[in-house]
Protein: USP domain-containing protein
Amino acid sequence: MRGLSNHQLSCCVNTLLQTLSATWELGDILDKWEASAVRDEWCNVPLQLKKVLSTMKSDTSRPAHHRAFLNSLDSNRIRLGTQHDADEVFLSILNLLHHQMDDERLALDIQNLYKISVETCVQCLDCSSVQTLNTYLLSLPLHVKEDHDSLEGCLTSFFEHQELRGIDCCFCAQCEKKTPSKKGVKLLSLPRILSVHLKRFRNSNGDTRKLDCRITFPETIDFSETVKEAFSSDFNQNDCKYTLHAVVVHSGYASFGHYTAYVRQRESQRWYYADDSHVHQASWETVQSSYGGNYSSGTAYMLMYRRGSKEAVQQPQLSG
Structure:
């Protein structure tokens, strides 16, 4: 594995690059892209990402050169020298890949790699009519409780029905007015790479604070057992088992902090810890130290899971 130098507060992007490098499926898709017709290469994010991911695979004795990628992000308003939120930057990068690649099929392949298709149902509590909307997410945003919690608990809460009353009432076409309602989300399909955002930041009265509370997460998870009630009747995937391959860690406070990453190396399946230019081998026990609850250590902020068991992902194959 190859480190990345910190350039003008680039630890957030450095960390995301380590997770994207560990997502070999993304690199495989970008390698298929010719990019011969790209104009203004300096500001084309997918082209610069393709180059830096290729660079990160070679000469691991020195930090990889990634200034061109940082500049391409800066030219697309992800500014250098600014504190960023990792999930926001991650979604911005995926959006730029989708819009700046001139091969629509490959751009769609990248989107599908992370695409979580969901069905949102809103039922009026006055007339019982139901409105349904099918949409998708590229990252699963999970609310975090302020006391001890777990990934399984966060997932259960996300898919629970919520009553919407008062200012949260929705417009009912049948009643022709805003009415109390019940809202629920169901899974239509799960992606090859599942990105999970643990929402540790809270806004209150104009101030933002970070929750350092303990949130446990497993190395492997089976959605068919953990949240089986969350599946839509149209869900037809057989394999719902996922294995963790990257963790984005945040240290510090809401106003000022630092990002690092734990990533699982492709060939050996060993864990490594990346802190900008410094990379060293780690263990699953060390990864678990990012659960939180200890204010002196970093806390997991994003989790990246790959579909398949630990044994299956050791033989990497790109599937839909």
Summary: DSSP finds ten helices and 18 strands in the chain. Residues 316-320 have pLDDT under 50 and may be disordered.
